[in-house]
UniProtKB/TrEMBL annotation:
CDD domains, per database record: SPRY_NHR_like
Domain of life: Eukaryota
A Gene Ontology molecular function term of the record: ubiquitin protein ligase activity
Domain SOCS box: 250-285
Species this chain originates from: Camelus dromedarius (Dromedary)
SMART domains: NEUZ (SM00588), SOCS_box (SM00969)
Protein name in the entry: Neuralized-like protein 2
NHR domain location: 23-244
GO terms (BP aspect): intracellular signal transduction; protein ubiquitination
Segments forming a coiled coil: none
Pathway membership, UniProt: Protein modification; protein ubiquitination
Length: 285
């Protein structure tokens, strides 16, 4: 992991190509009701609706997205996933707070955004607040191969949630790609990153199914290590980490995109004369 004082322009549209950061993992320090699998990539709240706060194992590099996919939901609770950043070292916490909001935030140097079914967009400076709730945009927007957030360019492919193959998966996939399904739905993908500014501070951005929600917090200390915060709260029961490619897409990814774009929907991939492992990769990833 590069030092925070030495920014890595992950996937930036200018400058030399830098090495990618290591895979993201959950920190061994987490809430009392959280169980992290041996790979460190899946976090599940095993009881109650609280004590579900998790952290990234390492501080994020500038422009690096800590991306999770909602794997399981639990009925009967009010509230959803919470996502953010903290300058607190998780290893320094004597006790992990019960909630990220307000408990962890009250410790200071922490910025957390509560994900809701709607209205997650943050209005830009100098633009009306009504813009934050406006979902209308050209359908072709999410067809662009890269998501550009300030000075960073991030391949969009893995940022977008996708349904499991089934009778209506081709319809659900279109809804995910257009960000029509609620951000709190199963298979939705949500990420957090920070972008340094010239004045030495940083903006925190939330990404939902391939779309930037705007700067949800400003004035973060860009020179301090910033860890991702994921609160597996209430109706969100389990999340898994999704790894991203920040440079040029791999040959494997490019082949998958060509195959997917040639199909009516993912179920048709089963009829191709291809190895099963490749067909599964095209359907599930």
């Amino acid at each position: 992991m590069a030092a925070v004082s030495d920014p890595v322009e992950l996937g930036a549209p200018w400058g030399p190509v830098r090495s990618e950061p290591p895979p993201t993992r959950f920190h061994p320090v987490h809430g009392a009701n959280i169980r992290v699998d041996p790979s460190g990539t899946r976090a599940t709240r095993v009881e109650s609706f609280a004590h579900g706060v998790c952290f990234s194992r390492e501080p994020l590099a500038p422009g690096q997205v800590f991306l999770v996919e909602i794997e399981e939901k639990e009925l009967g609770w009010c509230g959803h996933l919470r996502l953010g950043l903290t300058a607190l070292d998780p290893a320094s916490l004597t006790i992990v707070p019960e909630f990220s909001l307000p408990d962890l935030v009250s410790l200071g140097h922490t910025w957390v955004f509560a994900i809701t079914r709607h209205h997650n967009r943050v209005p830009r400076e100098g633009r009306p607040e009504a813009e934050a709730a406006a979902p209308s945009r050209p359908p072709a927007l999410l067809m662009e191969p890269y998501l550009c957030i300030e000075q960073y360019r991030i391949p969009r492919d893995r940022l977008v949630g996708r349904s499991r193959p089934g009778l209506y998966s081709h319809l659900l996939d279109q809804l995910y790609e257009l960000n029509v399904l609620p951000p709190t739905a199963r298979r939705s993908r949500l990420g957090v990153l920070f972008c340094p500014r010239p004045d030495g501070t940083a903006d925190m951005h939330i990404v939902i199914n391939g779309e930037d929600m705007g700067p949800s917090a400003r004035g973060l200390p860009a020179t301090q290590p910033l860890y991702a915060v994921v609160d597996v709260f209430a109706s969100t029961k389990s999340v898994r980490l999704v790894q991203l490619e920040y440079g040029l897409p791999s040959l494997q990814t490019l082949c998958r995109l060509v195959i997917q774009r040639s199909m009516v929907h993912r179920l048709a991939i089963d009829g191709l004369h291809l190895p099963k492992a490749l067909k599964d990769f095209c359907k599930y990833e």
